[in-house]
Design brief:
Blueprint: H1 2-15, E1 18-20, E2 32-40, E3 47-56, E4 62-68, H2 78-85, H3 94-102, H4 109-122, E5 131-139, E6 144-149, E7 161-165, E8 168-170, E9 172-174, E10 181-185, E11 194-200, E12 203-210
Antiparallel strand pairs: 1-2, 2-3, 3-4, 5-6, 6-10, 7-8, 7-11, 9-10, 11-12
Length: 227
Amino acid sequence: MKKKLFLAFYALLLTMCRSYSQAEPVSLIDGLSCRAYTAYFEGGSNTSSGVECSYTCPSGETVGPLDFETDPSLSYTKGDLDRLFCGISPATFTPAATLVPSSPTPAETPTLQATATAAITISPTAGSPLFTGQVTMCDTGSNLISFRIVTPAPDLTGKTLTVVIADQESSCAVNPTNTSLMTCTIPPSVTFPATVVVSVDGAVVNDFIHDGIGCTQITTPAATTTP
């Protein structure tokens, strides 16, 4: 009888036997303390190994011992441990924090300003002419004259263009058939050679004399009848 009791007691000791390594695994989570162990005759197997840990919750309560297969700091965060063992729900301010930095996306504004600046640079200034000085058509019959526009063509959107021929203002528009040309009216009583002055927003960009070579009566003026 005593022998049977001794064997039963010895078997119980074996089921409760664990040995721990001298060096504890490194844990990077504050409040988590772990040590590696080797267990004998636990869970029906001869030997098994793992990590035994204890964790101190933010409230000061210590939870454990807790068994893990490997160091939990390699796969868990402090927030995970608080949620699993301390009953602390994760903070809900994360979405708000995400929305705040994403809303000031006008960081792209400098790019838009740079684009606008580039467009202004191309626009004609006192040192950037609009016309090359070449006249491609001069019809004294229809009182029209076409000037060649420089390449690349400046952006005249929203700008005030003024063309004066022989001290008289002319009406001009980009030729719809050939956009590299600006066709202007020849003011009444203008004879060539004549001075051509071009201004954009008040700044003179062209000032030259057209000698009248090539100006012919291509179009016959419409006949007028007197009563």
